[in-house]
């Protein structure tokens, strides 16, 4: 009898975490490494949020809380949805988890049965398919190529829906591409979903505040009120508030789904960190004035990286609408040989050779469901990005 569960054969470790770990190991060994793998802002958590956490500790708010969030935080989340998204929720429609990942996972665990299909636009966040598999469902990737700016078309969505479809996972702006759906583009997808009342929508809005130029963020339940009763709107404080390590995510949806998700959480982690919840409360209710300058910084970095990568031989890099990622196409590099003699047969080999020969760590596109590409996280200093892109340009120029 095998000791390890058969479930492990269905999933793989996170490639983004693996790249970050590898880069850290090389740095520890004395290598000059620039890590562009982690999806984590380089800003410090704002001072008012840190102070709120300290006050919570000093006030003794370090004990168990309600399983899926303190009442004050749920109330603040309701107010956030009303204020920023025009969506009305009651506290019993809100769940708070240990990071955005847990809320998504809880929803899948609470709803997926063997044979249930979950439509996932590709390129996708690496965890979506594996979480579906862990929950017993079947991921159905639908590839959106560079020709549509990595955005799913209504025809593609319609064709992917079957009687077995349980969920459609929607992420805008996207990890890994940064692509954001316009109001009109989302409206067209909602029109398709209206035709299929058995399909639920899981909207991952984690990068809501990280949008550039004149792009207007919208969410499915906001665009089409008729989808409200079968939409789980997910968000968190990790990216916009530079709180990745605090591990607080949240979601809003029908009360019966939220209750079921709470049952899953009650038998897994129980409540999210009490101190982190009070920090998140301050994040949502306190000053928001740092969001605009942070966004401006990310936009400047986006423009820098897009410009420099498009100047690299064999690379095409679209300009995304949001998040802090770019997803360049490396079709022009495939089949060539690096200066160290590595034949670039796919994007994983490209990323490995890039790291070994230049010290720049990126995540290969196959991990996100679309090749030949790689993902760059530009959530780091301008000078670091400039040096990294210069190394990438040099690497590509020496391919023969």
Architecture overview:
The chain has helices spanning 15-28, 47-58, 71-85, 100-111, 127-134, 154-160, 183-194, 220-223, 255-266, 274-285, 291-310, 347-358, 382-397, and strands at residues 34-35, 94-97, 117-122, 138-143, 165-171, 200-204, 231-236, 249-252, 325-326, 360-361, 363-364, 374-377. The chain has 400 residues and is an alpha/beta fold. The chain has two domains: 6-44 and 290-397, Aspartate Aminotransferase, domain 1, CATH 3.90.1150.10; 63-285, Aspartate Aminotransferase, domain 2 (3-Layer(aba) Sandwich). The strands form three sheets. It has a seven-stranded mixed beta sheet, sandwiched between helices.
Q: Topology, please?
A:
Elements: H1 15-28, E1 34-35, H2 47-58, H3 71-85, E2 94-97, H4 100-111, E3 117-122, H5 127-134, E4 138-143, H6 154-160, E5 165-171, H7 183-194, E6 200-204, H8 220-223, E7 231-236, E8 249-252, H9 255-266, H10 274-285, H11 291-310, E9 325-326, H12 347-358, E10 360-361, E11 363-364, E12 374-377, H13 382-397
Parallel strand pairs: 1-10, 3-4, 3-5, 5-6, 6-7
Antiparallel strand pairs: 2-8, 7-8, 9-12, 11-12
Helix pairs in contact: 2-10, 3-10, 4-5, 4-9, 6-7, 11-13
């Amino acid at each position: 009898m095998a000791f390890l569960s058969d479930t492990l054969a269905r999933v793989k470790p996170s490639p983004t975490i693996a790249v970050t770990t590898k880069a850290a190991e090389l740095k520890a060994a004395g290598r000059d490494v620039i890590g562009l793998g982690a999806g984590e802002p380089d800003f410090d958590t704002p001072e008012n949020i840190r102070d709120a956490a300290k006050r919570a500790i000093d006030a003794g708010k370090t004990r168990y809380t309600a399983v899926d969030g303190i009442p004050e935080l749920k109330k603040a989340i309701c107010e956030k949805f009303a204020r920023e998204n025009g969506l009305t929720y009651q506290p019993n429609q809100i769940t708070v988890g240990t990071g955005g990942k847990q809320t998504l996972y809880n929803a899948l665990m609470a709803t997926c049965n063997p044979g249930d299909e979950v439509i996932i636009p590709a390129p996708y966040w690496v965890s979506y398919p594996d979480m579906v598999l862990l929950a017993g469902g079947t991921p159905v990737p639908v590839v959106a190529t560079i020709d549509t700016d990595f955005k799913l078309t209504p025809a593609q969505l319609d064709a992917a829906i079957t009687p077995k479809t349980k969920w459609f996972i929607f992420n805008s702006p996207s990890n890994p591409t940064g692509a954001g759906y316009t109001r009109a583009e989302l409206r067209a997808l909602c029109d398709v979903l209206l035709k299929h009342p058995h399909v639920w929508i899981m909207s991952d809005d984690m990068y809501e505040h990280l949008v550039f130029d004149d792009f207007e963020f919208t969410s499915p339940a906001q665009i089409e009120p008729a989808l409200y009763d079968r939409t789980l709107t997910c968000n968190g404080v990790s990216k916009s508030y530079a709180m990745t390590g605090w591990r607080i995510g949240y979601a809003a949806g029908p009360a019966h789904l939220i209750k079921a998700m709470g049952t899953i959480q009650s038998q897994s982690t129980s409540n999210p960190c009490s101190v982190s919840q009070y920090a998140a409360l301050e994040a949502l209710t306190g000053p928001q004035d740092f969001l605009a300058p942070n966004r401006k910084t990310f936009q400047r970095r986006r423009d820098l990286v897009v410009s420099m990568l498009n100047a690299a031989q064999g690379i095409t890099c679209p300009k995304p609408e949001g998040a802090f990622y770019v997803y360049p196409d490396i079709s022009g590099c495939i089949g060539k040989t690096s200066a160290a003699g590595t034949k670039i047969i796919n994007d994983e080999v490209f990323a490995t050779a890039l790291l070994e020969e230049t010290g720049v760590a990126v995540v290969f596109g196959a991990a996100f469901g679309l090749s030949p590409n790689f993902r760059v996280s530009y959530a780091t200093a301008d000078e670091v990005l400039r040096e990294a892109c210069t190394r990438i340009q040099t690497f590509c120029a020496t391919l023969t």
